[in-house]
Design brief:
single chain; about 60 residues; mainly alpha; 2 helices; elongated
Length: about 60
């Protein structure tokens, strides 16, 4: 889905429908889209993997 969304065919959706209803498929798709977007933002902002957490500034 991330690399080539055109490769998601009817068989993939049939597999999803075997386990989820339409609303659940929408929710799952939205969650996947959020993770993909988060990964792209992490890349754009050049967040290093395993970066130590910084405490928020006081005040």
């Amino acid at each position: 889905m991330y690399r080539d969304h055109h490769r998601i065919d009817d068989a993939a959706f049939a597999g999803l429908r075997a386990h989820f209803d339409a609303g659940e498929i929408v929710e799952l798709s939205w969650a996947i889209a959020e993770f993909i977007a988060l990964g792209k933002l992490i890349y754009v902002f050049q967040v290093p993997y395993g970066a130590p957490r910084q405490p928020p500034p006081a005040g």
